[in-house]
Amino acid sequence: MLGWETVGPTLWPAAQEHRRELSDFQYKSELCHVQKFADDTAIVGCIRSGQEDEYRELIKDFITWCDSNHLLLNTTKTREMVVDFRRPRPHPEPEPVIIKGDCVEVVHTYKYLGVQLDDKLDWTANTDALCRKGQSRLYFLRRLASFNICKKLLQIFYQSVVASALLYAVVCWGAASRRRTQRAWTNW
Question: What does pTM read for this prediction?
Fold first, then answer.
């Protein structure tokens, strides 16, 4: 996944002027595509039989496009995640992605647009993060209740702060293992 530096609030109006330029770089084929949202970009590639030329070329094209549009790639935030279901996994591991001399870190989990993805696509990392987030937010709900806040305000707090966090992107992870998601809902 490739991402460029986030733009601070003082630079946001200038960045808005270049928003049309940001939509200039588009790519979609049977094996690779670019997924962009605001300042987060993911390059997704399907590599079959070791044929990673299209994926590598797409990364090079994206780096060139960023340079020509005066966008800085933040290589310290850039990560690569490999999802490989073959058993056993082949050795050696794929060649690392290198951007301007910096080797991109290969990770097993990655948070993209608020959803924890892992290289097994089993949603364990996301479910665990939801459990932690839910526990934390329910603590504040309990604290509010201890101050004898009216029931209507507690319901508003629950819907806006607790439920919104727990149900974020449920269409992505909701069909995961029933046992895991059941654990997430019953731990509270």
Answer: 0.72
